[in-house]
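I have been asked to look over a protein record a colleague put together. This is what I was given:
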Amino acid sequence: MIDLYIKWQELEEKLNNSNMPMILNVFSSRIVDMFIQSSISSDYAIILHINTDEKIEINREITGIKISTYVINAIDDSKPSIIIENLNKSSITIFKAFSATLYENLYNRIDKDSIDEIINKTVDENKNYFSGIRNDLGEMEQQGLYGELLFLKEELIKNNDKALDCWEGINKNKHDFVFADESIEVKTTRNQSRLNIHISNENQLDNSLVKKLKLCVYRLEKVNVGKNIFDLYNEILSLIPSNKYELFKYKLIKAGMDLDNSNYIKFREVKRIVYDVDDAFPKIDKFTCGDRIYSVEYYVSLDGVEYLEEVNYNE
């Protein structure tokens, strides 16, 4: 899979040398080709060209985006394409995040669902962002995102300037941070007596496709006076260069965070424990499951498991 944000950057760099709208192919399959388009007047669009004989036509408009079906000669002068246009120039970052979600849904579902089902479902699931209504992150989602942002902040403080680019937690079936020499999975718990963590699927602790995998566990407390994900968002903004602001906001929006809302649950950091996830580490992975078992959700008790590092924040 590709990083759509990087593709948008490539397109915008080409715009600097052209007065014409630019189109860039980002995904091709036997069923559909996906293009992104922009112009110097900040007109952003997604173009989907159907490669099969199936006739698909979508024409709808919701607050912030418009979907039309018509011929674009530069792509195919004999067959219409589906065009999704951003109508709100102040929400370009949201549109880019939406394009990444649509790309992922096409990549993962193209052989299972029809094109119009994928498009309409993705639009319906994200329409609140375009209309200014935000989907609330649940308590556990806030806690999980807090852990990832805390790890990101700590890496930036250590001058790891690759940390933001390598934050992949917003993408499903990837480790939270994917560096050149190692990957990091971040977990949180509020259990103060037992060190139990929740594993969402068999990919999270799978170390077979990476050079090295570490597990970073944060023990947190829910408090009335502390920090929340909005506080960490502002702290991280002060640690990254201004040319990385849009990338950071794009990733947070994709994670479901409302950047205009500061009223999130507050936490206090108690402890950080880091583990080496090797073949002896207690886990269920793809090798364990085989080809017929998938979407495995389970818990791991880490009490007594050997760790690489332990930091107590109160000391």
User: Anything to note?
Assistant: Residues 139-157 form the longest helix (19 residues).
